[in-house]
Every structure is written in C-alpha cells, then in structure tokens.
Predict the 3D structure of the following.
Amino acid sequence: MTRYVGAIDQGTTGTRFIVFDHGGQVVATAYERHEQHYPEPGWVEHDPVEIWENTRTVIGAALSRAGIEPDRLAALGVTNQRETTLLWDADTGTPVHDAIVWQDRRTTERVEELREEGWADTIRERTGLEADAYFSATKAEWLLENADPIKLQRSRPADVRDRAEAGEVLFGTVDSWLVWKLTGNHVTDVTNASRTMLYNVRECEWDDELLAEFGVPRAMLPEVRPSSDEETYGTTDPDGFLGEAVPVAGALGDQQAALFGQTCFDAGDAKNTYGTGSFVLMNTGTEAVESDHGLLTTIGFQRSGEPVQYALEGSIFITGAAVEWLEDVELVDDPAQTEEIARRVDGTDGVYLVPAFTGLGAPHWDQRARGTIVGMTRGTRKPHIVRAALEAIAYQTRDVTEAMEADAGIDLTSLRVDGGAVKNNFLCSLQADVLGTDIVRPEVDETTALGAAYAAGLAVGYWKSLAELRDNWQVDREFPPEADPAAMDARYERWGDAVECAKGWADDGVSH
C-alpha cells in the first residue's frame, strides 16, 4: 500500500493541507481562507475556531480529491504563522479571545516601555529577538490582562490570569492550538518557542525572568519538543474526524519550515520566502550567531537526539501584502497582473513605495514607520507605482541580505526562493539584479508545507536521511543578475532615502 505524508500549512490569510509522496511531489491540496478582523487601527485578529474548522475541511477535501484514506497517511506535520498568539480554556477548548496576529501593533507602547527600562539588551541576548510588538510575549500579556473573565461551570466568573496560574488556561502559538486539537497534547516545537520572546534560545528553555516580567505563568506554557520528533506529539483521535490514529510528528514555524523544505541543512545555506511578508533565513549551524546589524538570532530546526540548528533571520513585515494593497486600491484587478503592468515602463521614474503599513522590521525595527510613496510627479502613472511596489520587495530583501553577509561573514552566491510571489518572473529577475546574485526557484514551490512534511516523515522513518531529501530538491529556473551593478547600487541608495521618510511617522497611533 502506497503511503503519504500530510502537511497542515496554517498561514496568515488561510489554511492549506497538502499530501506529499515519497519524492516530495504534491499529490493533492486544498485551501480555505479565513477572515481578517481589524477591531481598531493597528489591531489584527483571527478566530481560532474558524482556523480549526478550516483545518478539518481542507484535510478532508485534499484526501477526498486524491482518493486517499486516512490510514495511508504515515504522519502529519504542522507549519504555522508564527508569533500569532492565543489562549484557550483547557477544560472546554474554547479560546478566551480571538488570536492576536503577528502583524498586530496594539502593544507598541508596552514595548517602548521595555526599551526605556533597559530590557532590550536582555531580550536580545537571551531570545535572539528585538524587543518588538511582533513577538508573542506582549500579546500574551495583553490577553491575560484584557480577556473577559471565564465563566466556570456552577461557579462565578474567574480571572483569566488566576486560571492560567492553575494551568486551566493554556497559551500557545497556532501550532500548539492545532496540535492540541489534533492530539489533546499541549506541545510546541523549538522554532515556535524561539519566536515568543519568552524562550532562551541558548539555554533552550523558558526564561523565568522574562516570564515574570510579562506575567506569563509557567503552568500555561506548552512543552517544547524537537521540530522532527521520533516520540511524536501524539496521534489523532481514532474516534475523531479522521477516524484513524495518525502520528503528528513534526512542527516548524512557517519560515523555518521553508528553510527545511528548501533543504538548507548546512551552515551558509539561505532562502527567502515571499508571502504576506518576506523572511530571509541563513542556516548558521550549531552556533547562535549574534547580529550586530538588526537581524534576529533564531532556531532553524532540531531533529530528535541532535543539537539545535540556528539561523539568522531578516523579517520583512510587508511584501506580498503590498501587492494585495495594490489590489485593495484598485491599481490592479489581480496580483498576477503586476508583472505585465510593471513591464510597461523601464523604471519607476523616481517613484519609491515604502510599504511600512505595520512598521518596519529588519534591519530597521521602527514600530512607528508607516507606508510612504515619494518621488511622484504629474507624469506618474499606475505602472510606475505598481513597479515601485515590486522594487520595494527587492530592495527590502537587499537590506536584509547585506546585514546577513556582514553578520555571518559570508557572501551569498545564490538565494533559494519560494512563496506565491516567485511565480512572478519579473520579480525574480529584478531580485537577482538588485542583489547581484543568482535567484534559484525550486520545482516544488510549496516549500513551507514540504518542510513540515519532511520533519514529520523523517520522525516516523518515511524518509531515512537528509540525503534523501536533498535528492528530491529540483531547480525549476535560475535567474542570473543582468543589470548594470553601478546603476542598481545608485537606485538602492536612493531607496534608503525613501525609507528615512517613512520612519517615525506615527505617534501614539496618530499620523501627522
């Protein structure tokens, strides 16, 4: 009987389930979008129940399309939008509030307090992260302080924090929520733990001092396990929606999953995923390289019985979302149009678009930055703005890769790319020109889901070694740089001026 591995890819805008065969090829896929909630300016929330229901739907749909019974799944892996934070009642499984999404900026003032109180260096040294509202710690703190009291059975409402201290309310990122719903076990993996701003990435344990500062009780935290876990996180309920006890054996945050799916297993290997945001990760091996240039030190992955593999990361908050914005304001009818529209002009005619809609991430880390268009004249037309949005994606990537090369002391000779935007050949060619390095696009571009499948499949012996996975990886197309380097350097330098215009624009949530 032919067997397969399934991957749940729970992202910012939707949930996908993909069935992979032994060759790492897609056998079947299904996708469902979920609603984005914006209760106040700068706030972004998701309904965890909707995400779970969509997860069940896409698993069933993909298996049905492929004609595969659940007992033919050797394992399930999970990959997820990172940093997005939720709390739920351990007895009923009911979320105490909508999940606070990684893009959410409601805790900006709290982060500024932390910086003023001198916490930034401690946070960076222990967690590898910048003090920023992006990460989970201040989101969890806000939920504990602001979520409505929980009504106990046959009792009065109880404070959420009191119940959390008793382990009756659980904390997790979306991977923990899905694994708990699938198996009943409260676990996370090292990559997701490393994104909470509560986990010491060098000691590989929850940090008591940070937990105390944010008021997060240890009793509500998930157990931290390897990304590819031979002991597994548990099995699905044979009496549940699948009707089978399928091992759930791997989990990685989405960007680390893409690193794994791109087979970046060795120090110096790097990839960029173009999604809602873009995330450049470079494997640094067993060394947690400290960044002097605004990058994050994060955990890349861990296999059972092996040491943690670290990575440097450049987190760019808005790239694909800039293309979605073009659609929102009706400059394009569909994201696929951007390639054709951008090719109508030879350049942007001096126009720069800085898509700092939710602040700037690496290497700038400016929570008060806001989206900006500069350089427009009476002759500016739609193609100039559309092209400027695509150029912004490429320029932001160069911001990060230059910082990465400086930190790691390694010159990138090629960059492996994935995500929906890399179907755009114009963007790939532009990225090669802006970086002055080869852009390599794999044959299977669903590398985030593939990484989760690989982690789960390795754990249960479906794949025997990393060498097998490397053999699966195939190049679809390479894009070499073709533009004049001096001209590209001049355009990139002007980009830096545009970024300075965007910085510090918002003050206390009010734009001037």
Observations:
- The longest strand covers residues 26-33.
